[in-house]
Amino acid sequence: MHDIQQTDGVGTDHMDRLIDENQAADILCYSVRALQNWRVRGGGPKFIKVSSRSIRYTRRDLQVWIDERKVSNTAQATI
Fold first, then answer.
1. What is the rounded distance in angstroms from the CA atom of residue 59 to the CA atom of residue 24?
2. What is the pTM of this model?
3. What is the 3-state secondary structure (H, E, C) of the chain?
4. Can you name the residues that pair with 19 across neighbouring β-strands?
5. In this structure, which CATH number among 3.40.50.300, 1.10.10.10, 1.10.230.10, 1.10.1670.10 belongs to the domain 16-66?
6. Using CA atoms, how far apart are residues 3 and 13, in angstroms rounded to an integer?
7. I need a surface site. Which of 17, 57, 69, 77 has the fewest CB within 10 A?
């Protein structure tokens, strides 16, 4: 997974801008199909349902999802 924290010169607008599922999948290094499955089954990052066929994500929500899964050793409980 890519770390998408804010960097110098990138404002909060960048983190809150809507991105499509292809961009989100690329950031997470997962397939679009995995994102689609998580939307049905749960467990994936929060998403925005713009319409019945239009799904968007924010980089901020992806980063929160990534951060929730960070562990320091294999004995730590996972989500």
1. 8
2. 0.79
3. CCCCCCCCCCCHHHHHCEEEHHHHHHHHCCCHHHHHHHHHHCCCCCCEEEECCEEEEEHHHHHHHHHHCCCCCCCCCCC
4. 57
5. 1.10.10.10
6. 17
7. 77
